[in-house]
Structures are given as C-alpha cells and as structure tokens.
Design goal:
Number of domains: 1
Oligomer: single chain
Strand order of the largest sheet: 3-2-1-4-5-6-7-8
Distance between the termini: 79 Å
CATH class: Alpha Beta
Helix content: 40-55%
CATH topology: Rossmann fold
Number of strands: 8
CATH architecture: 3-Layer(aba) Sandwich
Shape: globular
Amino acid sequence: MEVVGMVSVVLIALSAASLWALILKVHCRVTTGICKSKRRLDGKTAIVTGANTGIGKETAKDLAWRGARVILACRDMRRAAMAKDDIINSTGNKQVIIQHLDLSSLESVRKFSHRILESEKRLDILVNNAAGSNLPNILSDDGIQIEMQTNHFGPFLLTILLLDLLKKTAPSRIVVVSSFVHKYAIFNVDTLHTTAQSSGIFRYCNAKLANILFVKELAKRLEGSGIIVNAAHPGIVRTEFCRRFPSVFKFFVELMISTLFKNAQEGAQTSIHVAVSEDVEGITGAYFVDCKEVQASKQARDMDLAKKLWDSSTKLVKLTDEELKVLKKMK
C-alpha cells in the first residue's frame, strides 16, 4: 500500500507540474509580441551584430526578406558564412555581406567601422545584438572586463563611430538589445570596467542596465538629428545563451527554456519591430518588450547615472579628437 501511495503522490505531482508547464507555455505564446509591419527596406542598408546565430540571425533574415542590404557583423567568420548562405537561400536576397567584428577588441571595432565608412554610402539601421554571458572574469587587451566590453563598451564605441553615416542617411534607427535582467543590476560606474564584480550573473545584469542607460543618454544627444535609438528585450529565448554554463545547471536551464520559452524567430520580433515599424517613428530613448513600449527600471531611468556612464565610457574606449568631433556635431 505504501508503494501504491508513493506512486500516486508522484503521479499527482507530475500531473500538476505538467499542467503548470502547459499553462506557462500557453501564456508565453499568447503574450509573445509579433512585428506586424509589412514595411519594405529596398535600397536601405542595415548592420546586425552577432548575426551568425539565434536572435541576430533571425533579425538579419527578416531585414533581408524586406529587401535591405544586410551586413552580418560577426566574430566567427565560418559560422557567419553559413548564416549568410542560409539567409540568401531563405529570402532570395543576395545583398547579404559578412564582415569581421570582435566587440571584445577596440581595435577590431575601429577596423570594422573604418571598413564600413569606406565601403557604404548609407546606413539606415544598426542593430547592436551581439552579447556574451558568463564570460571569464578577466580583462581584455584593452584593460576592460571582457564581458562588459563585449556587451557595452564595444557596442558603445561601434555606435559612436557610425553615427555620422547614420546621420547622413537619416531618418535612421539604432536598436540596442537589452534584457529584463537589467532590473537586478548591482551597478557602480567607477568599477564597472574592472573585475570587482565576481558574480557572472550580476555582470550580465550590469551590462544590460548599461545598454539602456546608453540608449537614454544617446537619445538625448541625438535630438533633432533624425536618428532614433531604442532598447529591446527579446524575452527568454531558446538560443545558445547557456552554452558556457556548467553542464548540470545548463541541462536544467535548457530543458526549462526549450519547454516554456521563445524560439529565436519569436525572440527577434521586438528587435525587428523597433528597427522597422511605422509605430516606432518619433519614439526614441524607449524600452520595448514584446513589441510594446514599457517602462524600464527606476535605475535605468536615472539620467544622472546615464550621463556618468557616458562620460566614463568615452574615456575607457579612448575616443580620439577626430572621433569626438562626431559627438560635437550631434549637439
């Protein structure tokens, strides 16, 4: 009888867990935002960083489907070539180009930007999608904590260096992919670039908060330029986000994510919406979730903190006098 009772309890528990999983899955599907814009992008140029896989690849594919010339800015050129072929085959758009970009290297960012400024006559959309999580707590060759450089300082420099081209092409758009985890940041601008924050999850939270603060300050500085800049949270997505997690933890996280949350195409919808939708025209400095503008955390709306991060970032990426001229022209 005891065995029968134990089996009954286990079956009831499994049934309850399955029911809750089903409810959560239905809820996720019902609330998932979908970009409804049919806008074409023929004759326009877009850059998507980290476009060789996941959300970045799906974003690039959608922009190519709309007719844009799409530049895949990727660190792994082998995988970038595979992504390029897949996008061309899927969309029929042959205007898909790959360019090397390693955001953990300021030199790589500058080389990439120089190539773009030399080869491209216009830039209509910049999607700062590439990100790294659970990276080693070490300094890059530039003396910046490598996860923060990949997620914030590298994209910060990239955006600044491409502003002039974006302005010449205005109206143009900048999309910065952030995350809801920005709400859990333990943020200190003075130590953000160092290895002082030992917890990998909080480094990622800090980086995602930095993304939104960057958007807030940049939007303020770009007023009247014809460039709009917004942040997007893709949701919890079935991508390679967990590939660096410890094996046991990774197994359970991936099992939960694969069961309950978005695939890469669904996760890309908010980035696409912010990049192309007519509904976003005139909106800048905002934070979007499921294709809707929502309020970011109180800390993410702190304009004094945003200004402090901006000033620190300009120094850490070592902007030259020539590069600073671009910012001065935006005022």
